[in-house]
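Page 47, continued from p. 46.
Same chain as before, 389 aa.
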Amino acid sequence: MLIDHFNQNTQMAFVGGPRQVGKTTLCMSFTERPHYFNWDNEDHRELIVKGPSTVVDAVGASTNRTIAFDELHKYPEWKNFLKGFYDTFAQKRFNIIVTGSSRLDVYRKGADSLMGRYFMYRMHPLSVGEIANTGLSEKEIGSPQDIPKKKFDVLMKYGGFPEPYLKSNTRFYNRWKSTRLKLLFREDLRETTRLLEIGQVEVLSELLRHQVGQLINYASLARKIRASEESIRRWVFVLESLYYCFQIRPWTKNVSRSILKNPKIYLTDWSLVDDIGTKHENFVACHLQKAVNWWQDAGYGTYGLYYLRTKDKREVDFLVERNRRPWFILEVKSSSSKRLSRSLEYFQTRTGAPYAFEVVMDGPFKPLNCFEYDYPVRIPAVTFLSQLI
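Result:
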């Protein structure tokens, strides 16, 4: 991905994603190991604070043209530093990678915006498509590929973060999960946002964990935590910026009596979800979010992920929009039933989406191209998800 980026572009590559998802490993996978500067390293921090010229002097006469800055967003003047570095040195001499465990793209507002100087790439946990396919597809949708059921079950149980997935060990996973969450709330949250209400945000994160797939009720959350609704909204945004969770909003065009406002919440790490049916829905939501982000970042077009629900409780779990038009709708089922969900046909007719899928989690792999059917169809989860990134 990054090699292709620098073969085709002069812009910096911003790589955002949750802590321990593999951003540093990706950066170090270049044929030439990049010069690496981590803001959390005291020696590196001193060089960065002194300015771009000092960093260039530290690199010296090396023929390696790639420099990686990790967690640089923790530096209050990071945007000005990068602007100066890019405008003075990068276009002439260096390829610049900037990685961070907070959403780098939310910091681009203001007069000192870096817009036009970078392209954003978002990393997500491992997915079925990534396990099934060794390389990136040149198309949005790849060919269906099977993976062993054991790998699918491990991915579901331990999540898609590389270490717990590869080790597949419950004791290691429990310790890793505890450490990661402590770092997220005790370090990243404090350093990135300077919030004082760390304890309340932790309580909020636990409440959200038990409300995955449900409509967010800010008033109810505010009462439970004893905070204002405005604070709850702000803290949810902060948790999103740290990749703890993400929101999916309702799609309302051409659907009468549709819900207009309330988003649904999902966790970036589906292994934290206890209820198996909810975990299945979260699992698919993460795959769709990853695909939508990748298609957008790779330049295929404009994409969005939504849900469908009317006031009389007709509902479909997900709708994916491509170039502002419905592309496909999708309902997640833990197991097959005799009758296909009636909501698929109802919403396909009203949205005009070309494709409608009932994705069944316990179904065995079938070598079917899901996107050859223009009517509602039941598809095994491993088949459908293997066609995504």
